[in-house]
């Protein structure tokens, strides 16, 4: 389809303008947040807003080294997100391979079970978790939070990986098996290299979801383990919001996901569509 | 991952049996984890919903049977939250699909620059909902200072307390959710539209089918599976939406943006009435399962 090539110039101009507006609307928080993070509190509150100002690094200095430093929170996010992502992939990849490629009794049931666990509303799970972690003394601990992130990331990762495994031609397995390569060796040396891209996409998604998680973090975390998503609230109080610091903190908190999103954008789009077209993932 | 000796083919071991055993070994760890992290808590939640557990009044605790659920009948806040959940889910999903599809159709007409828009569309999706909520609350919707107020004031429409006014607050949180997730619908539908066969359109054009006819009779049927999938996935997200509303309004003012999710949370962790909170979560679970079951059946029927 190339309808635009024969379109009138005015029509094309309108399309371009529409695209420009769209771009501005979607990129707005990141751009505006970035600008705000370099402003002084006085410039932030100026009306009408100032576009030309002397940028300052004070806000970043404050949220990194100051009394409201979010470095410990970034560390919490890094530990919990990385650990839960690693565990998720370790469990999800083999399971997805079995669901996608192997014959065994209860295949449909096991696939449906994984899908159904994804439907559970997080707010429902948080109550039992809270009570159990409280009893076992694991509230506000890395292991508690990491384990609980598996609830939403594992089903998601399994289903996304299933759709990638299904794309590998069956002949590859057959050839390897006929060579008496063994199931495990076939999976490891023949199939896994074929889904490397899928593993990368799934890992990115799982990490993003873990990094952005808020509900579990705010209820089950605390003073020791407090991911950045929760720490953002430190900059907001009833009496006074520290706009510029909030913006600087948010920029630091969001830098990893924005960078990952930009670098992996092609793969993310593919992951979204694979999940959507085949009925896998949720986010 | 070590390879237990059992998976190396042995004489007399049929291939099928070998495959079954291998499948079990690969699945067992994941299923076990899911059993522990999702199914066991679910049963515990169901048990809690049948009990009176009030951390504020621990002396009143005990088995309540269906008492918590009976209590909902006369709880106006529950009915309000149920209604808001329906409004929130319904309106955000419809808006996302409508806007997403229109934008995808428009952007498809642009010969160059689609890549830039795709990158921009990724941004809202990857941002944490809680940060999105905070951004909107502070930089976009705050009165006297936010971007929206800037526009309404310069247009002479005056200043509004977008998140402080009960009616505007609901519209605002719906707008926030729609802003964040429409790019998802857009990306998926754009990718689907791009795969449609061009020769069908050429044929239709030769038959002098109007643009609307082409859309109605060719495009729509072809993208319907993708739309259904977007609807299902977005419904799940809307039903479990929490962080953005929590950050923007906290469910308020009053309970004007308190969807079921937030009501269950507030009841359990602000008012510490865990038993009642658990029963509210059970209702939410029931709705989620019913909706997904219905949607999947609808999808298969097509």
How does this model look, in words?
Chain A: Pfam families: BPD_transp_1. Chain A: It is a multi-pass membrane protein. Chain A: Its main location: membrane. Chain A: InterPro entries: BP-dep_ABC_trans_perm (IPR050901), MetI-like (IPR000515), MetI-like_sf (IPR035906). The complex is a heterodimer of chains A (283) and B (302). With 283 residues, chain A is mainly α. Chain A has helices at 9-37, 41-44, 58-65, 71-101, 107-117, 122-136, 142-165, 170-178, 183-194, 196-212, 215-220, 228-231, 243-263, 265-278. Chain A is globular, with a radius of gyration of 23 Å. Chain B contains twelve helices and two strands. Chain B has helices spanning 15-49, 67-73, 76-107, 114-126, 129-140, 147-154, 166-194, 198-206, 211-239, 243-248, 260-270, 274-301, and strands spanning 51-52, 62-63. In chain B, α4 crosses α7 (166-194). The longest helix of chain B has 35 residues, at 15-49. The chains are: A mainly alpha (283), B mainly alpha (302). Chains A and B meet through α1, α4, α5, α6 and α7 of A and α1, α3, α4, α5 and α7 of B.
Keywords:
heterodimer, A: 283 residues, mainly alpha, 14 helices, 72% helix, globular, disordered N terminus, disordered C terminus, B: 302 residues, two-stranded antiparallel sheet, 12 helices
Write the layout of secondary structure elements.
The complex is a heterodimer of chains A (283) and B (302).
Chain A: H1 9-37, H2 41-44, H3 58-65, H4 71-101, H5 107-117, H6 122-136, H7 142-165, H8 170-178, H9 183-194, H10 196-212, H11 215-220, H12 228-231, H13 243-263, H14 265-278
Chain B: H1 15-49, E1 51-52, E2 62-63, H2 67-73, H3 76-107, H4 114-126, H5 129-140, H6 147-154, H7 166-194, H8 198-206, H9 211-239, H10 243-248, H11 260-270, H12 274-301
Antiparallel strand pairs in B: 1-2
Helix pairs in contact in B: 1-12, 3-7, 3-9, 3-11, 4-7, 7-9, 9-12, 11-12
Sum this structure up briefly.
With 283 residues, chain A is mostly helical.
**What's the main sheet of chain A like?**
none
Oligomer: heterodimer
Largest interface: A-B, 106 and 105 residues
Please bin the fraction of helical residues of chain A.
Answer: over 70%
Termini separation of chain A comes to 30 Å
Secondary-structure element pattern of chain B, one letter each = HEEHHHHHHHHHHH
Total number of helical segments of chain A? 14
The tally of beta strands of chain B, per DSSP, is 2
| Beta-strand share of residues of chain A | under 5%
Low-confidence stretches of chain B: none
Question: What structural class results from the helix and strand content of chain A?
Answer: mainly alpha
Structure class of chain B: mainly alpha
Strand order within the widest sheet of chain B? 1-2
Percentage of residues in strands of chain B: under 5%
Spatial extent as radius of gyration of chain B = 25 Å
| Overall morphology of chain B | globular
Span between N and C termini of chain B?
42 Å
List the helices and strands of chain A in order.
HHHHHHHHHHHHHH
Please bin the fraction of helical residues of chain B: over 70%
Biggest sheet architecture of chain B = 2 strands, antiparallel
Mean pLDDT of chain B: 87
